[in-house]
Amino acid sequence: MEKYITSNLKTELGYFTLKSIKKKITYFYPSNDKSEKINNNHLHINFLKTLNNYFLKESSSFRYQLKLIGTEFQKKVWQEISKIKYGQTVTYNDIAKKVNSSPRAIGNACSKNKCLFLIPCHRIICANGSTGGYVLGENIKEYLIKLEKNAK
DNA sequence: TACAACTCCGCTG
DNA sequence: CAGCGGAGTTGTA
After folding, report:
1. Given a cut of 70, is residue A152 above it in pLDDT?
2. How far does the CA of A150 sit from the C1' of B13, in Å?
3. Residue A121 annotated in active site
4. Straight-line distance from CA A1 to C1' B7, in Å?
5. What is the pTM of this model?
6. Which of helix, strand or coil describes residue A99?
7. Model confidence over A15-73: pLDDT tens digits?
8. Strand C lies under 7 A from the Cβ of residue A13
9. Closest nt to A73 (CA→C1')?
10. Which element (helix H / strand E) includes A27?
């Protein structure tokens, strides 16, 4: 049985659980646990540092190996999303065209993304310019987009 | 089958 | 032309 390493991190946006297995991050999602528990693990410590830098606009991307858990379709979509550069936004429709699917299905796959920030699904917006939905709420999504746009 | 983090199209004013 | 409503679409539980 493979062993997962878990931490509970305090961030700008609340507490998040980080899970990794064999140096690969597999999960990063909001947590109900309001206590900070950082696993004494190089990857986790490093990740937290990168995360803080991200909010301070001093880091533009997360370069970590991910272990994606999901259907083939979801992985395909997530990989496509990962290509979106820092500060860029793309529409659901754009992604849909790339994987020969429909925007509705893309939104579906995005909402199941459990690696927030690592897979930048906050950079995907509606074709009409509105933000669309987000796990943490539209306001957070907008916040992130602005954060990236204002960074230099 | 019903639902979802979408989009397009046609209708009203 | 803006705003609104509804149908079409594709993948999942």
Report:
1. no
2. 40
3. yes
4. 45
5. 0.94
6. coil
7. 999 999 999 999 999 999 999 999 999 999 999 999 999 999 998 889 999 999 999 99
8. no
9. C11
10. strand A24-30
φ, ψ (nearest 5 deg) of residue A132: 85, -170
Q: In what order do the strands lie in the sheet with A14-21?
A: A5-11, A14-21, A24-30
Which CATH code fits A72-150? 1.10.10.10
3-state secondary structure of A64: coil
Is the model's pLDDT at A144 over the cut of 90? yes
Closest-approach nucleotide to residue A121, Cα vs C1': B5
For chain A, the structural domain boundaries read 5-55, 72-150
Neighbour tally for A142: CB within 10 Å:
15
Q: SS3 of A108, please?
A: helix
H or E element, residue A139: helix A138-150
| Tokens, residue A28 | 């990063």
Question: Using one digit for the tens of pLDDT, what is the confidence trace for A88-133?
Answer: 999 999 999 999 999 999 999 999 999 999 999 999 999 999 999 9
Q: How many CA atoms lie within 13 A of A105 on its CB side?
A: 15
